[in-house]
Amino acid sequence: MMRSLLGGLFSLCFLASTTFAQSNPCSLSDHTEYTKKIKEFTTESFFSTELVDHLPLSSCVPAPDVSLHHIVGAPDVLDYTRDINAYFRLLASKSPRVKVWSIGTSEEGREMLVAAVSNEANLAKIDRYKEITAHLADPRGLSEADAQKLIAEGKPIYWADGSIHSPETGSPEMLMELAYRLAVEDTPFLQEIRRDAIVLITPIVETDGHDRMVDVYMQHKKHPDQHPYPLIWWGHYVSHDNNRDNLGVSLALSRNMLKTYLDWHPTVMHDLHESVPYLYIMTGTGPYNAWLDPIVISEWQEMAYHEIEEMTKRGVIGVWTHGFYDGWAPNYLLSIANNHNSIGRFYETFGNGGADTRVRTLRPPDTSREWYRPNPPLPKVKWSARDNINMQESAILFGMNNLASNGQKFLNNFYLKSKRAVAKARTEGPAAWVFPADDPRPAEQASLLNLLQLQGVEVHRLEKELRIPAAQSAQESAGDKEKDKEKSAEKSDTGAKPKEEKKPAEAVLPAGSYVVRMDQPYSRLADMMLDTQYYSPRDPRSYDDTGWTLGALRNVKTTRVTDLSILSAAMQKMGRIDPPGGIDGQGKTFVIQHNTDSILASLRFRSPAFPWKLRKIPSKPMAPNSKPVPSLFATPTAPSSKRPRRISESKSILRMPL
Questions:
Q1: What is the dihedral angle through the alpha carbons of 647, 650, 653, 655, rounded to the nearest 10 degrees?
Q2: Which of 151, 244, 512, 584 is most buried, taking the most CB atoms under 10 A from its CB?
Q3: pLDDT of residue 13
Q4: In this structure, what DSSP letter does residue 376 have?
C-alpha cells in the first residue's frame, strides 16, 4: 500500500515538474561537457560546421546524454531501439515543440515511431496542415484559386528516416540529437525551420535488424579477441533487400512507412544511408525513371546542389553528387515519395559499420577529381562516428532550411505534380489499364489489384460490357504473347503453314472487368507498375533492377487502353477485392482447375493429408480436336463431417475450410 502511495506521489511530482517546465520560459546555455566531447571525437575540423560543433543546454528539455549517458557519436557504443524510442518520448514529454506517435510494429514486435518537431503554433494546428497536404495531393475538384490559398496557408513537411540498412548505424543516433537541436536551439536558422516547416523523424526503419546489429557490435566490443559474429539477417528473414520492397510491400516496415506517407503526404522523404566517402547527396546519373514527373528530377538537383554549396562554403570536403546511383528503379523506400508526387531522396555518408574510430585508406576511384566531385575525399583519413554524425546532421539541416525558406515553391510543385498526374490520361496517356473479368487466374488478379490499392491507386469495375477499337487496346500481358509464340512454334514443327489471323476491329472488355484509370493522382505509379520498361544498351549499367512489369510477373492479363471513351463508361469504385469462391456439388473427390494460380501451392501445403493427383480431364463437353484441361484431384482423409465438398473451379479454393 505504501509503495503504491509513494509511486502515485512520484508520478504527481513528475507531472507537476513537467507542466511547470513547459509553462515557463526555458533558459539556454552552452552544454559545455557535450560540446567538449563533440570537439574531442571529431577527427578534423573539415568534418564539421557551425551548426553541429556545439550543443545548447536547456533548463527544461533533457539533452540526449541525460537519457543515453553518452553523447551522440561517442566511440564504441550504440543504442537499442527501446532506448532511442524512450528518448524521443522523453523529449515529447518535456518540450511543447515535439510530438511522438507510433506508426506500427515490426514482424518481431518492435515499435516504429514518428516524431514531429516544429514550433508550438504549428503543432497546435498540425491536423490542419495534414488536411492541406491531403487536398494538394488529390486536387480533383479544387479550383486554382483555392489551391493557391491552401499553398499560402500550408507548411511543407520534411520527413527524415534512419537505418533501413542495419549495419548503417549512424542515423538513429544522429536523429536524436537533431530532434533535440530543432526543439531547443534559438538561432535564426533553426527558428526558420520550426516556423516555416514541420519536421517528421522516424529514427529507425528496420528496428529488428538494428537491435541485432547492436547485439553483434557490442558483443565484439566486450570480447575483442573473439571473431565478430556475422549479421546474417537484418530484419525477419531479410537483409539488404528490405530497401527493394516498395513495389511488393511485403514487409511490415514497408507497410508502416507507406501508410504514414499516405496519411501525411510529406513534401520531402529523406532516407539516411552509409557507404561511400564522405557524403554523397542523391541526384543520379540517369537513365531516370520515365514515369516520374520531370519536375521531381529538377527538385533532386536543386536540393542537392544547395546542400553541396553550403557545405563547401564551410570548408567541408568530400561532398558530391551524381556518380553513384542512377534514378531508374522505383522500388526503394524513398520511391514511396517519388511515386506519389513528393520528393524522395537519400544521403550516403561514410560509415565504419558501428561506432569505431579508424584510419581509412580509400581506393583511387573514390578520391579522383570529377566534374561532379570537384572537392574529393582524401586518400587517407582518420574517421569517427562523430564525423559521420556531423556530416549527416549539417547537410540535412541545410536541406530542411531550404525547404522552409522556399515552402510555397515546394508546395506549389507538389500540387502541380498531383494535378499533372490527374491530367495524364488526356495529356500523355494511356487512358486506363484494364484487368479483364475472364482472367483464368482470379486470385492472382485480385492480389495485384489489392496491391495497387494498398499503394493508394484507385480501382474501378465496369458495370457493362465495353467495346472499343482494337487499336486502342493493343497491349496484353507478356504471358499471352508467349503463348502466341508457342502456338506458332507448334505449327511450324508440324509443317503446317500458320494461317493469317484477321485482327478484330474492336476489343471487347467484359462486364466486371477492373479498370485502373489514368485520371487519378497516382496514375504515374500505376502506369509504371503495369507498363513495359525499355532499358537502352547505350545507357550506363543499371544500379539496380531494370524491369518490374507486375502484370507479366504475376501472369495476370492486363490491357493498355488509349481510347478516352473508357473514362466515360459506367463503373464502380472498388474497395478490397475478394475473388468469388464456393464449393459446388457433393462427393469424396474434389476437382480443381489447375490454372497455376499461386494459391494452389498454399492449398497443397496446407492440406498435407490429402492425396493429390494431377490428370487432364474435360471440365465441359469437349469440342472436336480440343485438349483436356489439367486438373488437380484431392481425396481428403479427414472425417466426412470436416470434408469440403466438390470444388468446381480454381477460384473456389480460396474459401476452403482448411
A1: -100
A2: 151
A3: 45
A4: P
| Amino acid at residue number 461 | R
Q: Which residue has the cell 479498370?
A: 515
DSSP state of 580: -
Question: Does 619 share its domain with 475?
Answer: no
Query: Are 192 and 295 in a shared domain?
Result: yes
What nine digits make up the cell of 411? Answer: 508546395
Residues 6+ apart with CB under 8 A from 368: 376
Ranges under pLDDT 50 in the chain: 1-23, 477-479, 482-484, 486-487, 489-491, 622, 638-658
Phi/psi of residue 250, each to 5°?
A: -95, -15
- The grid coordinates of residue 477 equal 500481358
Task: Tell me whether strands 432-435 and 559-561 are parallel, antiparallel or unpaired.
Answer: antiparallel
Q: Residue 494 falls within a domain, yes or no?
A: no
Contact 209, 233 (CB under 8 A): yes
Query: What pLDDT score was predicted for residue 472?
Result: 66
How many CB atoms are closer than 10 A to CB 656?
18
34: closest CA among 4, 9, 70?
A: 70
Grid coordinates representing 445? 488478379
Residue 341 included in any domain: yes
| Spatial contact of 413 and 294, defined as CB atoms under 8 Å apart | no
Cα–Cα dist 121/252, whole Å: 33
Alpha-carbon distance 439 to 558, whole Å? 9
Q: State how beta strands 268-274 and 157-162 pair.
A: parallel
Same domain, 363 and 465: no
What's the rounded Cα separation, in Å, for the pair 250 and 260?
16
Is 582 within the bounds of a domain? no
The amino acid that residue 251 corresponds to is L
> Is there a cis peptide before residue 287, judged by omega within 30 degrees of 0?
yes
In this structure, are residues 524 and 339 in contact, taking their beta carbons and an 8 Å threshold?
A: yes
As a whole number of Å, the CA-based R_g of the chain is 29
Other CB atoms within 10 A of residue 449 CB: 21
Burial class (CB in 10 A: 0-12, 13-18, 19+), 367: middle
Compute how many other C-beta atoms are within 10 angstroms of the C-beta atom of residue 89: 16
Instruction: Supply the DSSP string of 566-584, one letter for each residue.
Output: GGGS-EEE-SS--------
Which set of grid coordinates corresponds to residue 639? 472425417
Strands of 326-425, DSSP E: 343-349, 358-361, 380-383
585: left (phi over 0), alpha (psi -120 to 50) or beta: left
Cβ proximity of 311 and 347 under 8 Å: no
Asked if residue 366 and residue 285 are part of one domain, the reply reads yes
Domain count, the chain: 3
pLDDT of residue 237: 92
The torsion angles phi and psi of 549, rounded to 5 degrees, stand at -65, 105
